[in-house]
Amino acid sequence: MAIVEKEREFKFTADDFNILRKISNEHSGIQAPDERFDMFYSRLSKRVRKLGLADFKEYCAYLQAGHDDEFTQFINAITTNLTSFFREQHHFDYLRESVIPELLIRNKNTKQIRVWSAGCSTGEEPYSIAITLLDAIPSDWDIKILATDLDTNVLQTASDGIYTHDRVAELPNEILKHWFMRNKSSPNHVKVKAPLQDIIQFRQLNLMDEWAMKIPFDVIFCRNVLIYFDRETKTALAKRYAKMLTSNSWLFIGHSESLTQICGQFKLVSTTCYQKNT
After folding, report:
1. CA 218 – CA 141 distance, rounded (Å)
2. Is 223 a catalytic residue?
3. Which of 148, 174, 195, 229 has a beta carbon 3.0–4.6 Å from 205's, enabling a disulfide?
4. What gap in Å lies between CA 115 and CA 1, rounded to an integer?
């Protein structure tokens, strides 16, 4: 697809776009194809305007000058955060019906389960994982979920655990009654209950950086994240995930993603659900 430059509020050229997507790739691993030219303009023009810059050439120079605060805003703007509670329901069915029963046997001595939600966005995924685990596992077990994302804005939403009614409209009534409550400060919103928030730790993480986590996980959800990366980066990430999983544990990825011919350390056990080979 050829990049088409248009008359806009701020001049935005193919050279500007190439600089911005190079910065994105070098610092976050995110790939930006030509099709995202207009998306970059629409999202980043707000930053150009707020900073009082004349055009995107000045914005590129501003980022290249090393303004860390603006780099955070830049990444927040260009990342896409499409999510919902129990998105791709078959993953949560498999977690409940196959993974949890095995973990209850495997970890019976420690009574511990550790899960990582990588690319957690606004929190619907880790809260869905938490609901599934708490509904199926005895209360004396120690359950912890690490939820990470590159975007600091969505992490704040996730940590607050407050959602509009339309975000929870499709949830069964029993889940709504058990795990959500009215938000006192805003009647148009609901808030997740404390038992869910208590087992989730939200942290900002760039997957291209070193990972501070040392303990292995029983389950990793990394859904609709690999699609942003090139093949080499996908392979490297899959291998890093394998190192972070205990033997024969599980990695869930997005419906349009695959580890076939990417990493031989996993076997497919269900739709876009993989198990570490050893």
Report:
1. 14
2. no
3. 148
4. 40
- Please list the residues that pair with 13 across neighbouring strands: none
- Please tell me the distance from the alpha carbon of residue 183 to that of residue 106, in angstroms, as a whole number: 39
- Cα angle 238, 155, 103 (rounded to 5 degrees) comes to 50
Catalytic position from the list 149, 151, 218, 223: 149
Residue 93 is a catalytic residue: no
**13-59 pLDDT per residue, tens:** 999 999 998 888 877 777 778 888 988 998 899 999 999 999 999 99
Exactly one of 34, 43, 55, 87 is catalytic; name it: 43
In the chain the domains, ranked by start, together with CATH numbers, are 14-78 (1.10.155.10), 89-276 (3.40.50.150)
pTM for the whole thing? 0.79
Give per-residue pLDDT as tens, 240-271: 999 999 999 999 999 889 998 889 999 999 99
Confidence of residue 198 (pLDDT cuts 50, 70, 90): very high
